[in-house]
Amino acid sequence: MKLRSQRVIGGPFDEQHSTSECSVSSSTSTSTTSSNYRRRRNTIQFKNLNDTTTTKQQHYHQVPELRRAGSSTISTVDIDEDDYDESTILSDTLPELTSAGGVFYRTILTQFEAVFMNFYWNGLPWDGYQCRSAKAGLTGAFFALPMLFCNQNRYEQAWWVLQATTSVLADYFYIHTRSAWHGIDRIVAQLSLLGLVVRAYFFVKLWAVAMLVSLPVCCFTLATRAKDHNDISRWHWCHCLWHIVAPIGCMIGVYLTYNCPHGTAEVFGLDTFC
Question: What is the DSSP letter of 15?
């Protein structure tokens, strides 16, 4: 029941309304308490047909704004109806797609969202050192391998060393916490991919470019599916696979961009890519 307090104005009738003032004070205290409970919506509750109250438990992928904060399972949600705007959160506008195309699209969108809206986020629904894995983190050092095929181009060699360094720092040493290395790693990785694709477009056949890009992205998409299913062990292996397949694709791409223009791609089979 909604209670409304009434204030008695002082004056010559103060003595006549002393009893009313006491009741108003009690009503005001009760109204304040009721209002506090009513304003704070700690638990989303639903009533079934038998008028019994049940509590809805929500997982991290059902509440994207809490998923970005790193919570795996939640039972309470605070919602301010005046400030909450679903259209301002990019990933909230997408349905929970289970098809390969939907997961791929959501993976790409989440990466861009993390760069521009949540720079320090590690991208994982889990907390603490359980996220750290040598096979998922230290394998990021493989991103330095393309430097071996840069024909002594010191600038590009330094770039691939930077790519490997940011990958290891973000995915191993700081994977358990929020850090700027997560955002730096995403930016460097996206610039590496974009630069390699643009260069390969002029010297490598289009189908070869599509194949070299699609295989690593598929591995990354599998890792995203593992996070959706809250399977941390599966995510470790899928991210490890990403750190193996992606450097191999970068290695082949760098080799082709340096050798296809001169007709020196002598590795068996790769000459067909030019």
Answer: T
